[in-house]
What we know:
Elements: E1 2-6, E2 10-16, E3 31-37, H1 39-49, E4 54-61, H2 64-75, E5 79-86, E6 92-98, E7 104-109, H3 118-125, E8 131-136, H4 142-155, E9 158-161, H5 172-175, E10 180-181, H6 185-192, H7 199-211, E11 216-220, E12 226-229, E13 234-237, H8 250-263, H9 268-282, H10 295-305
Parallel strand pairs: 1-4, 1-8, 2-6, 4-5, 8-9, 9-10, 10-11
Antiparallel strand pairs: 2-3, 6-7, 11-12, 12-13
Helix pairs in contact: 1-8, 3-4, 6-7, 8-9
Amino acid sequence: MSIIVFGSINMDLAAKTPRLPQPGETIMGSNFFTAGGGKGANQAVAAARLGTSTHMIGRVGNDKFGEELLTSLQLYDVNIDNVLTDKNTHSGVAIIAVDETGQNNIIVIPGANNHVGEADIERLKKLFSGATSLLLQLEIPLEFVQKAAKVARQAGVRVILDPAPARSDFPIELYRLIDIITPNEVEASQLVGFPVNNPETAILAAKQLQERGVENVIVKLGDRGAVAVTADETFFVPPFAVEAIDTVAAGDAFNGGLAAALDVGRSLSEAVVWGSAAGALCTTKRGAQGAMCDRATFDKFLHNLV
């Protein structure tokens, strides 16, 4: 069995700051590093680190960053046979500030990610045999996110969408192609038009998204846990107690853990626990892909909680 990730690949340029700057303000940082990122690539690494056979489809640019990004994905056992090096543009870049509490803000310059198109959809179609899930995000052109969801649905492959970054032009037709949608508080709020900041409002938001055609909704509430609403049940997964130092890729770790659990036949409720645990462990290290935990660490963490 395997999962497919169709999405963005970025080089993260990250700075540690005492606090996040206000508009127009210059502050001094204390540390800087570069690392592989992009929501698509992050989710691929998260799943692969948990032992899942993972295929990445996307694009990098014809530059040094592109070479480094491909090397990084290979080191984490992500299959990159269907990642294209686009000779006409630069690789995607994310500029990240992380404060002392682990909170962050991010600016994404898509580069090659904006060139994902029909050729990538054709490569995607060839991977559906044996695949259990297709993971999607919104850092590539929305038109091709929708096309990818459509061909996956036609092939009987589960579609998991992380609606990040949130889009005001989210097409109503896309909801009907999604098996599981996983917004965080901010994204859920933007999708439904009212504040989502606790389990109660998360349930209300989830039910509204179900009315638009999504079967299963998981709202990620960060250090307040996660809420899941399906056709048959509503449940809450409490947060895991960890010492968070960087939340930049916690949501991506969640989706990777979720898909990894489903790939080995776990129930959705078990998969949400896996996602929450993977997300929590990710916050205990700096960076994105390098913060994703390996299977041995993950199993030990869950075992110690029993």
